[in-house]
Amino acid sequence: MNAIDVHGLVKRFGDKTVVNDVTMQVARGEIVGFLGPNGSGKTTTIRIMCGLLTPDEGDGTVLGFNLRTEGLKIKREVGYMTQRFSFYEDLTIAENLAFVARLYDLKPVGAHVDRTLEELGLASRRNQLAGTLSGGWKQRLALAACIMHQPKLLLLDEPTAGVDPKARRDFWDEIHRLAADGLTVLVSTHYMDEAERCHRISYISYGTMLATGSVADVVRDAGLVTYLVDGPKLEKLAAELRERPGVEQVAPFGASLHVVGSDEEALKAALQDLDGREGVRVSRGETSLEDVFIQFMANSTDNMQ
Amino acid sequence: MNGFFSFSRLIALLIKEFIQMRRDRITFGMMLGVPLMQLVLFGYAINSDPKALPAALVSLSQDHYSRAMVSALENTDYYRFDHVVESAAEAEKLMASGKVVFVVTIPSDFARRVDRGQRPQILIEADATDPSVASGAISTLGTVASEALLRERGVPASEAKPADRLEVIVHRRYNPEGISQYNIVPGLLGVILQMTMVMMTSIALTRERERGTMENLLAMPASPLEIMLGKVLPYLVVGAVQVAVILGAAKLLFGVPFIGSLWLLLTAVLIFVLALVLLGYTISTVARTQMQALQLTFFFFLPSILLSGFMFPFRGMPDWAQWLGEIFPLTHFLRVIRAVMLKGADLPTVAFETGILVLFIIVYAGFALMRFRRTLD
């Protein structure tokens, strides 16, 4: 049985359809990355799955419980980490954890708090007020609090926004360790490197699920061709290339340009005369996940406007 | 560009301020609503020389002299004889529960004494817990009743002998010296409790919402009832401390007499505080921000002080204002606490008003639970 099995989810706020016919399956123990531009419906979808919002249409189960009727059972088995830090800033770390432990009826409270503090390396800061913590520590606390009751499914909404690379790396190590123990994780993110750490990714744009699969699958299915262009005065060159037929994306990456198109022949033709120019070198490159996403975003119409 | 003052920068600030003002509907409503409310309440409802006060008549002799006197008293507009009772005990109960402000007793031998030329007497008992209420009514009573009696007998006032004059015996009950603190201090208990309890709980949910902790709280397995009780019960403790402080001060600083049962009083206070915290919680399910919650609290607070009988005699207000006053828990609490503290009322006497306070609890809790959403929809 899948940890998440939902189909046809629709959620409207007023006349805006924020989630439009989203279908999603996540197997147990899987880490699924949830990607999409800002305002694409990621947070809303996650909130539907943990029972914070009721869908206008669609159905499904989370951990085998009916999404519509068994919200309370879902809440007990799910850990949800909100996008914004949502623990009490005027409580200490230990007090926040004790509060959560009591709400989930974990006994004895003290032992659960100590264990969680120890596991996440928060023991030294147990008496610090949550409000005085830096972004990375806040995120650790939030994670600690939402895995404390040993949920079977973890829903993480942009958990690493504003967190430094080291803390992010530690965070992801922890996620993989938990998944290895059988925890299912659905994590929304804007970071491509994080998407690549997931077993599978789902891309949602303006409420509609556009692609799903492993990173390699998604990149391959997008059918994009990428060339790297090196040379002097890349700025001018980029402007020139954007005008040419067959060129769909031009983005500077360090000292070279990524030139992306979906029609290989057209792209080749567009780049043909560049090779001869002084100092310019054209080579075949790898299409990155980011290139694919930019392509998705360019193709999808924005119904939010 | 002038660094000290620029007209265009001022315009920018003004435009922004007006836009924000317009967006916040509740604030905008308050700006219009509060002055209007104050105007109407102060202008029409409040009367420091109250008329048409409810009175009880204990008339043991149904003679024409008594009738003439009573109608003369009613004509002064100060008295409204709502109750005609047979016994002093019944009248006593009416006064203790605050249903009447005066009891006028005409003794059974009244007509006989008048006919025999002996000096007739009547007894008027006034509820003096609020000294300002009774003064006007009492001062007119003597001459009005006396003249009505003379007219009825056909004796011209100029020829009246001292024995023809009516003797009016006045008893100022509960507060014979007319000390206004006796009335104000128990009332203050209600007002202070109302202010702090409603204000503190009104931001209960809005604070969670503003700080973003609401989302997390809802995602965890806590039921609406648990959240409501978890929010309001701590303030019962705060309320208990306030009650102890105010009652102590009432006794030590102001020497307010304490006649009734302490347990009855504390029970009434507990019920009142519970009603208040639930009211505050109800406000917090309606308001979107802490600011709005405080504004709504204030919007509730002002008329409840003016119309509850705390600042101005309740019975002196026009009927519509009295009806409006009945919707505030404070009104009912004031009746209970004044009855118990100053008049020594027992449970049956205050049972009705206490029952209404319980009704408030049920209504507020029901409404709050209905308003509270388990989801963020």
UniProtKB/TrEMBL annotation, chain B:
* Xref: Pfam families: ABC2_membrane_3 (PF12698)
* PROSITE patterns in the cross-refs: ABC_TM2
Domain of life of the source: Bacteria
Q: Which UniProt keywords apply?
A: Cell membrane, Membrane, Transmembrane, Transmembrane helix, Transport
Q: Mind telling me what this protein is named?
A: Transport permease protein
What GO molecular function terms would the record report?
ABC-type transporter activity
Domain (ABC transmembrane type-2) spans 131-375
Task: Supply one GO CC term from the record.
Answer: ATP-binding cassette (ABC) transporter complex
The family line of this record is:
Belongs to the ABC-2 integral membrane protein family.
Has UniProt tagged this entry with the keyword Aminoacyl-tRNA synthetase? no
Q: Where in the cell is it found?
A: Cell inner membrane; Cell membrane
Membrane-spanning parts? 26-46, 184-205, 232-254, 260-281, 293-314, 350-370
Per the record, the major location class is: membrane
